[in-house]
């Protein structure tokens, strides 16, 4: 089942089945690793032209797995992301578990605006981003 | 225990100590005009560039009134390109044009100080008739533009009876959260402590009586949310002094980061002995077990502890588990200054 958009707008692309989405860091996003706390802060600036409440600036705290995924989405193709994730992910796991974790991680990072799909906006200007506490 | 962070992810900048209000509790002892030694906006710009290059990813702007600082919107916009920005203001200068400018600058969150739930209480606190209406209007303008907006209120003898009215007011204006803040013995608040301060029992009764309307979040730092957040604290005052936390403005001076004799902030962060000890939290005498989980730290707020005990390692008397019978309505001699 395709996940609903957190705010009721257009849903993000479904990375839950089939090919992995081709993701890159969203424009203006800044990652600030804090290895001392095993986390990475991700700043997502506001998007000009968004309606009230949508596209607000936000600072997210990424866990190690999300941090790894965000760092790997540097322009390499999805297969290379999956391969690198499977080799470098924090806990050892079989290929199926690794793939599931990657899809879930991509979905979450798309939802909060840290990533976008390379050839399209995600989750879309009519879908306000989910916020986490700085 | 060594300090946890090699460099600060977040920092507070007190960009000016000028303010058009004359609040009786003003921590910065503000005047209408800036103090002569304040950094100019070019110096703040250069500092912001350096801090961002050194890893800062969140700026908290306060004052004084930051919107009174010439060139502030440009500084805000520069920081918002690369970092989350929070702006603490009394809101009276946020007309439609300023609200548009804040939105265009990409401000992350605006926090508006309210000194009461009605004009009588608020304007008596600020000394400026009409300031309540202006603050409320400023808050509303931000919320209407989709800017994340909070209200802040300092818990005093005057505001305590109006807290729940203030929560409803803030929600009606569009605030998403209200922060109820403790009173610190700084600036004019120190000199007028007797007329402002409540006992801890009175404070806890006010906190426990909070009844926010649906959808409004309330933040507070009393038990069981008292915390020692010094491990990550970084702040620079209007003259370019590194002071750790804005609530330490009268107690700490770790060196200058701009102007004559300045050194890079990161050098102070990494090498200034007193700052390192404060962040490391070594030797804290006693902690509250229920609050210890907050922010991974111990002993509660260091500014409150130092104000009442004169020791960085003392327990925080604003925590009912650590109060030890201290009457918070009475400042000790060393804190009266």
UniProtKB/TrEMBL annotation, chain B:
It comes from the Bacteria. The keyword Iron-sulfur applies. CDD domains: Radical_SAM. Coiled coil: none annotated. SMART domains: Elp3 (SM00729). Residues 5-213 form the Radical SAM core domain. Pfam families: Radical_SAM (PF04055), SPASM (PF13186). The keyword Phosphoprotein does not apply. Its cofactor is [4Fe-4S] cluster. Keywords: 4Fe-4S, Iron, Iron-sulfur, Metal-binding, S-adenosyl-L-methionine. PROSITE patterns: RADICAL_SAM. This is Radical SAM protein. It comes from Roseomonas acroporae.
């Amino acid at each position: 089942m395709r996940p609903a958009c957190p705010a009721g707008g257009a849903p993000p692309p479904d990375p839950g089945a089939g090919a992995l989405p081709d993701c890159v860091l969203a424009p203006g996003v800044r990652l600030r690793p804090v290895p001392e706390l095993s986390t990475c802060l991700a700043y997502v600036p506001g998007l000009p032209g968004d309606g009230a409440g949508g596209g607000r600036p936000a600072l997210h705290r990424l866990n190690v797995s999300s941090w790894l995924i965000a760092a790997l989405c540097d322009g390499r193709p999805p297969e290379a992301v999956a391969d690198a994730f499977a080799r470098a992910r924090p806990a050892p796991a079989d290929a199926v578990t690794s793939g599931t974790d990657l899809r879930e991680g991509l979905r979450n990072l798309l939802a909060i605006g840290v990533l976008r799909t390379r050839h399209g906006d995600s989750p879309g200007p009519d879908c306000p981003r989910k916020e986490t506490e700085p | 225990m060594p300090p946890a962070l090699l460099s600060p992810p977040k920092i507070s900048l007190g960009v000016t100590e000028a303010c058009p209000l004359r609040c009786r509790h003003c921590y910065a002892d503000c005047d209408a005009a800036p103090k002569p030694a304040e950094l100019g906006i070019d110096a703040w710009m250069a500092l912001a560039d350096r801090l961002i290059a050194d890893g800062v990813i969140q700026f908290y702007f306060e004052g004084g009134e930051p919107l009174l600082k010439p060139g502030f919107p440009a500084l805000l916009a520069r920081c918002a390109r690369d970092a989350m920005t929070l702006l603490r203001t009394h809101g009276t200068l946020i007309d439609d044009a300023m609200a548009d400018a804040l939105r265009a600058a990409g401000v992350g969150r605006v926090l508006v100080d309210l000194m009461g739930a009605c004009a009588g209480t608020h304007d008596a606190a600020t000394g400026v008739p009409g300031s309540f209406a202006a603050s409320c209007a400023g808050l509303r303008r931000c919320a209407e533009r989709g800017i994340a907006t909070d209200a802040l209120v300092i818990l005093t003898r005057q505001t305590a009876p109006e807290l729940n009215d203030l929560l409803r007011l803030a929600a009606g204006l569009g605030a998403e959260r209200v922060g109820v803040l403790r009173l610190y013995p700084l600036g004019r608040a120190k000199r007028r402590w007797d007329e402002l301060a409540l006992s801890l029992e009175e404070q806890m009764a006010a906190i426990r009586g909070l009844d926010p309307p649906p959808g409004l979040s309330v933040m507070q730092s009393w038990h069981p949310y008292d915390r020692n957040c010094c491990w990550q604290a970084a702040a620079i005052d209007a003259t370019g002094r590194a002071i750790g936390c804005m609530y330490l403005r009268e107690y700490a001076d770790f060196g200058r980061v701009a102007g004559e004799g300045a050194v890079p902030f990161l050098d102070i962060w990494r090498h200034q002995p007193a700052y390192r000890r404060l962040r490391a939290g070594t030797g804290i005498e006693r902690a509250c077990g229920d609050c210890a989980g907050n922010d991974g730290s111990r002993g509660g707020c260091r500014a409150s502890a130092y104000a009442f005990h004169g020791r960085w390692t003392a327990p925080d008397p604003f925590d009912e588990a650590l109060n030890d019978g201290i009457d918070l309505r009475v400042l000790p001699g060393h804190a009266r200054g």
